[in-house]
């Protein structure tokens, strides 16, 4: 029986060169659009959410909670591909936040939840994103430039069952190989880089907890 999930995001980040868009088009990718947006991330004063690898984000009024999912466990710091379950329905987010914090929130909306649990913003930045689709592979590619001077690419496939993950991993890694991404080392994302630059104590705690 298939193991159903809300949404499971399987992704691999990469550092891209100036010719990446030409390479993407050669591989059958088509530009879907360009978007400028601000992400703001929240946590408790004692960082209980992020230390448990739960990432609560407000993208200009649209909320999302990313929480870890792994079929095989192990040290994810050395794995170039990451797997996260994404929650976008506010009721599910509130329930999941309450579960990891060991409480039952009374709030019915995200702004009220932030106030009730006294959550604080620990990161906020603007991203300039170009998005591509690769129809024949069923993949999505984002090229991001953050306003703090960091650029990173991401190849992603969204699946709905755990059984689909191995094929998603294979497709992502094969496409990255075609794109010239051969390193097996994990590439830091925007959040990791932001924390390293602007919140070094938070970054260090996450490293010690083996979250980063």
Automatic annotation (TrEMBL):
Residues that hold substrate according to the record: 13, 57, 59, 66, 129, 154, 190
Entries under Gene3D superfamilies matching the protein: Hypothetical Protein Pfu-838710-001
Keyword presence, Transferase: no
Pfam hit, one: CYTH
Start and end residues of each CYTH domain: 7-200
Complex and partners: Monomer.
Protein's name according to its UniProt entry: Thiamine-triphosphatase
Gene: THTPA
């Amino acid at each position: 029986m298939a193991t159903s999930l809300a949404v499971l995001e399987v992704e691999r980040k990469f550092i891209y060169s100036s010719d990446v868009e030409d390479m993407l088009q050669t591989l059958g990718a088509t530009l879907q659009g360009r978007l400028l947006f601000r992400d703001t991330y929240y946590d408790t004063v004692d960082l209980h959410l992020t230390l448990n690898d739960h990432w609560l984000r407000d993208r200009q009024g649209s909320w999302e909670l990313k929480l870890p999912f792994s079929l095989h466990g192990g040290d994810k710091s050395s794995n170039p591909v990451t797997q996260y379950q994404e929650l976008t329905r506010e009721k599910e987010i509130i329930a999941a936040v309450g579960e990891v914090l060991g409480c039952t929130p009374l709030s019915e909306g995200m702004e009220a939840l932030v106030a009730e649990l006294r959550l604080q913003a620990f990161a906020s930045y603007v991203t300039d994103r170009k998005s591509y689709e690769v129809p024949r592979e069923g993949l999505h590619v984002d090229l991001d430039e953050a306003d703090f001077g960091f650029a990173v690419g991401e190849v992603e496939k969204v699946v709905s069952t755990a059984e689909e993950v191995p094929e998603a991993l294979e497709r992502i890694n094969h496409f990255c190989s075609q794109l010239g991404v051969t390193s097996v080392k994990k590439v830091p994302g925007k959040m990791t880089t932001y924390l390293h630059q602007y919140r070094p104590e938070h970054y260090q705690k996450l490293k010690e907890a083996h979250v980063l």
